[in-house]
Amino acid sequence: MVEIKLxxxxxxxxxxxxxxxxxxxxxxxxxxxxxxxxxxxxxxxTTLRMIAGLEGITQGGLYIDEKKVNxxxxxxxxxxxxxxxxxxxxxxxVFDNMAFGLKLRKYSEVEIEKRVQNxxxxxxxxxxxxxxxxxxxxxxxxxxxxxxxxxxxxxxFLMDEPLSNLDAKLRVSMRxxxxxxxxxxxxxxxxxxxxxxxxxxxxxxxxxxxxxxxxQVGTPREVYEKPVNVFVAxxxxxxxxxxxDVTLQDxxxxxxxxxxxxxxxxxxxxxLKQAGYEGKxxxxxxxxxxxxxxxAFIETFPSATVKAKVVVSELLGSESILYTKVGDSEFVSxxxxxxxxxxDQIVELGFDLNRSHFFDPETKESIx
Amino acid sequence: MQSNFxxxxxxxxxxxxxxxxxxIFSLVPIVIALLISFTGLxxxxxxxxxxxxxxxxxxxxxxxxxxxxxQSILNTVVYVVVGVxxxxxVSLTIAILINSGRNSFFKMMRLVFYTPSITNTVAVAVxxxxxxxxxxxxxxxxxxxVGIAPIGWLTDPNVAKLSLIILAVWKxxxxxxxxxxxxxxxVPRSLYEAAELDGANYWExxxxxxxxxxxxxxxxxxxxxxxxxFQFFDEPFVMTKGGPLNSTNSVALFVYQNGFQNSNFGYxxxxxxxxxxxxxxxxxxxxxxxxKQRGE
Lengths: 368, 296
Ligand SMILES: Nc1ncnc2c1ncn2[C@@H]1O[C@H](COP(=O)(O)OP(=O)(O)OP(=O)(O)O)[C@@H](O)[C@H]1O
Ligand SMILES: [Mg+2]
Known about the structure:
Chain A: This is ABC superfamily ATP binding cassette transporter, ABC protein. The complex is a heterodimer of chains A (368) and B (296). Chain A is an alpha+beta fold.
């Protein structure tokens, strides 16, 4: 049973002008897999390192099981961490790398042997125990780093971009391994990444950060379907959401240059009108996967379609990505591979406004 | 065939100039010294080569019956055995301490400890001669303040060696500290952080992370310091001339005295060759130890 609570935590590095993390509030439940995601420099590592005790906390309180641990040394917090560059001890064998923490904590030889062998079994490292890290591949090193965390049997795992040094294929398989590991060990985990795919696939809850501030906390489904602002809508999902500056009028959203004109579904229109946006400007956000080429869709929503010219098209096997242009608004759609079109062709695209997002142009926050 | 031959010859043309310089200024003199050591070359022999007599091993035989030489070997062994570990421990400790901080105080300390290395030995030795002065020197004055009887820093045969070692260590620390500092700064911070999370305290981090990471630089400093201390010369030459009672005379100084003061070139060459062999043997042992360590 472990619960981590971050209360109004802020961090200002010595000598830095501004705060790197501002008023961070989060309650992490037992066994949860939390992912911090956000662009480079948004304060993910800083927050993680404050939890580990590697950085001091400027303001606020960090609680582990209701106990304030702001001033506790890292080793007394009983946290295991996997570093981005693995930080394996280069002069120790794989076995010793994993055993080091246990030796320092005065475990018996027998117990150490048992735990390391067990971790090696889980991670498929049994054949490499006598090697030094320099004689391992990237993926193997990564697993040793994981193993070092596992053997400790610590109640909390922290991982700072553990997969960023691996190639795309290995990353996908290690992603699955870490997820599997979490399912079997059930250790409360905080995982840092700037890769939204990792966040979406692994997390119980995602914490989206920007410039040291939390933007949204929610399940992958929540941050995908109900992004609270333009930033989250833009950051989560690939390819990124298309944004259009539009005006709401008589049940339609229109772009400035009237390049297109889309009928807003009745229910949404009502909410927008009630919120006082009739005749006002809005930001419309439509995900590429919510723009369709299927005839059936277009025939169902004939007043939410646009004829656009293909600028660039990419075939990705089962689907294709179309970069299209109407007037001077450009947008991306993700459609079935059968609807792949060569550049310069005209395509009719249907917008699924039921699944689109509407934002206030001033605050950039979601309206619905 | 033709191009194959060229391929083989090209690399040699690149190293040839360096080899040539090495040969002229290092290898040839060594061989000449070896040859001279089998002769009775002295000042007359320099003027008239026909006077040079081949004497076989008699220089060497005489050396090992010469009490002054045996004493100088003993002294040199003391210099090496005491001085080399001292240099390594002191410079490593200072490097670790200086590396623990980043602010301007630590930067200044770096300068403070490095300064002795860039100061001329003779100038330094002259100043230290004053510090060591039995009646006027700073050290004895300070000792007198706390009621300790004056020490004959350079005049007491039992203390003089130690005085010279202190000076030489003080002077050698700067450069070696810099080598250690450079190596320390190459140790990734995350290793310490990982160790900290693994539960290592400061001492355990030093033992399990810092020292193993510095293995190569410790080896390098050991070998270079060893070689330097086998040739211990400047300090006794300037400060004691080998006295009192030969108690600070080193092999290098013995060679100098016999060669350039007494003009017994053959005899001096034999002495220098004994020193040369000792250095080679010590270095080979070092390398073997290092290899063994890496092997396990
Ligand atoms: N030691 C430091 N001193 C001063 N400023 C720092 C320090 N470390 C980080 N920062 C600043 O704090 C901010 C957050 O850094 P942090 O490393 O937490 O970002 P991140 O979200 O982990 O980014 P990335 O995805 O690139 O790892 C950045 O603006 C960075 O420049
Ligand atoms: Mg980071």
